[in-house]
Amino acid sequence: MSAYIRGQVCGVDNCPSRLWRIIDGRRTCQYGHVMEGDVEFNDDDDNVTMGGVMTRRLNLTTNAIGNFQSSLSLSQLQSSQQFIKQKKLYGHDANILFLKCFQFILKKQCIQLVSTHGFPEHFVKVVKIFWMKYIKHLDDNDPSSSKNDFNDIIETEEMTDIDENETRNNDITTTTRRKNKNKIGLHMSSTIAILYMASVHLGLPVYTSDFIQWICTTDLVYFKANESLPKAWKETLPNHYLGIFEGGKPPTTLQLQHKVISICHSINFNADFNNLINYEGLVLKLTLLIPLPPEFYTRTLKFIQRIEDTKNLHLIERDTRNFTQHHLYPEIKVITYFILTIKYILLLDEQAPRKKYKSSWIRSLLLQHQKLISTLDPSKNTVDKTIAQTVYDENKKDLFDWSNQETTTYLDWIEKSYLSLQGESSSEFDDTMSVDQRIARRKLYQIFRLISNEGQSKTSTTSQQRDPTFIEELQEKYAQLQSLSGNDDGNDSLDEDDGTDYENRKTLIHQLQCLIVDKITLEFNIPKEDMIRCVSRTERDCSHKIKTKEIAHQSC
Questions:
Q1: For strand 19-23 and strand 26-29, is the pairing parallel, antiparallel, or unpaired?
Q2: What is the DSSP string of 119-159?
Q3: How far apart are the C-alpha atoms of 377 and 28, rounded to whole Å?
Q4: Structure confidence by residue, pLDDT tens digits, 394-452
Q5: Which H/E stretch holds residue 28?
Q6: What SS3 state is found at 23?
């Protein structure tokens, strides 16, 4: 005999009993009444001569308050569960919520740039202006939208903090579902494009390669950005919008520039804001990337000022998705001028009576990068660049082909960037994790502990060793280059035909140009074929401009 279970009132003949037990598969109260709606088998009217007894097990369960759930039909149970669970938004309301989520992530990115990378505080206001103008552009080009909907995003939100426990806003829970005929056209790369446009307007020496590096090293919110959204918004946002906030692959420079020209056209950027890029800082960045003597920096600036009007080095506007003239992008144009300047300097130096950059110097520069000679540990900036290149480089080496130094550098970065934020105590108060996940993490850290006695001794010794700065690393590279090239001022025997026995000087120049192209394509995440195509196109344009200026000068 089974024990009694407290449940609902029996009610048969005003029976007040709440105690039930199972007798022969039937719910029976303590006074012998069978539950109404329960299934009974082998009634007295059945044919006894059939032989055997047909039984059926009833999986009758009780809910939290003790009521029997079997009294509800399957459709009633499903409808009640759907009523409790919030429904997904679709159509126009989903677009409004998507814009709010996009604005929320854009604000978090601005805060990171100001607090971590030293951007000015008024940078946030500039980004807000660009975002408001883009919202107005969407409002003007969406015939199905209401004017008040987009004003709610700008006026009521104003990029303020969002409560994580906030329920669905009243302005987005409308009963109607309007079909949006115009695509919004936003992606996670759109946030980077807006941030880049704001830095150009303020004249900051920040370029697309910097944003790509911050994305790959998780110094800027990009990958898995939907995890930073409020929980109520994630539950109501459609899945295809949540997929946009996943981030996907890191963008290339060409993709970012294409997104920039599209947004510039949408907000009429060139008419209202400063659109000239800081090309001097970009040339300095390229010079230190190799590194090269300061003469290449000054010669590149003079070459740009002679060939190109500096007012043309601005962000362009295009309203097309099939823009293929990549050499017109301002950053790409400066990069191609830098590569051509190096080529022209070395070729003209060959005709000089006393070579300033001899073949031994070119060979030592190639040797420095081929053998990766280094007597100093890499700085944080170099480590971040290496990590970023392992993320987006398609031709990267297999993990088993990494050297010990590359493996150690990568594991140290993982430990500092991720494992330091995943301590044992962090999981105890994490509301997003279930009880089972917290127990599993606690047991995992009992097996692999981040901090041990040996680890404390190692960290204490390594903490005393200060990581080198970028300037110290740069000084070491220039000292290496000087030592490898030897005494360039005193050896006249190496002045003219020092490279004829090894290979032709033009071949060395071509190898150096290929090395520079490889370094730049990795730094800016540009496909090598596109970079070579842009260099050849810019070289033809330079030849045409030089001939035109010579003809104009002769005519005068």
A1: antiparallel
A2: --TTHHHHHHHHHHHHHHHHHHT-TTS-HHHHHHIIIIITT
A3: 80
A4: 556 566 666 676 677 777 777 776 665 555 444 444 556 677 777 887 787 777 665 54
A5: strand 26-29
A6: strand
In whole angstroms, what is the distance from residue 153 CA to residue 186 CA? 16
**Ramachandran category for residue 37: left, alpha or beta (phi over 0 → left; psi -120 to 50 → alpha):** left
How far apart (Å, rounded) are the C-alpha atoms in residues 436 and 440?
A: 6
Q: What is the residue-wise DSSP string for 262-280? A: HHHHHHTHHHHS--B--HH
Q: At what angle do helices 294-307 and 279-289 cross, to 10 degrees?
A: 140
DSSP percent split of the chain into helix, strand, coil, nearest 5: 60, 5, 40
Structure tokens, 355: 């070579």
Long-range contacts of 48-54 (CB under 8 A, 24+ apart): none
Closest CA to 119 of 210, 48, 15: 210
Query: Which bin fits 374, alpha (ψ -120 to 50), beta or left (φ > 0)?
Result: beta
Return all residues near 415 (Cβ < 8 A) that are at least 6 apart. Answer: 450
Listing DSSP states for 339-408 in one string gives: HHHHHHHHHHHHTSSS-SS-HHHHHHHHHHHHTT--SS---HHHHHHHHHHHHH-TTPPPGGG--HHHHH
The answer to whether residues 442 and 425 touch, using CB atoms and an 8 Å cutoff, is no
pTM of the entire predicted model:
0.71
Q: Are 534 and 332 in contact (CB under 8 A)?
A: yes
CA distance 296 to 479: 18
- Of 265, 105, 87, 125, which is closest to residue 192 (Cα–Cα)? 105
CA distance 470 to 368: 18
**Residue 194: pLDDT over 80:** yes
Q: What is the CB neighbour count within 10 angstroms for residue 528?
A: 15
How many residues does this entry show for the chain?
Answer: 556
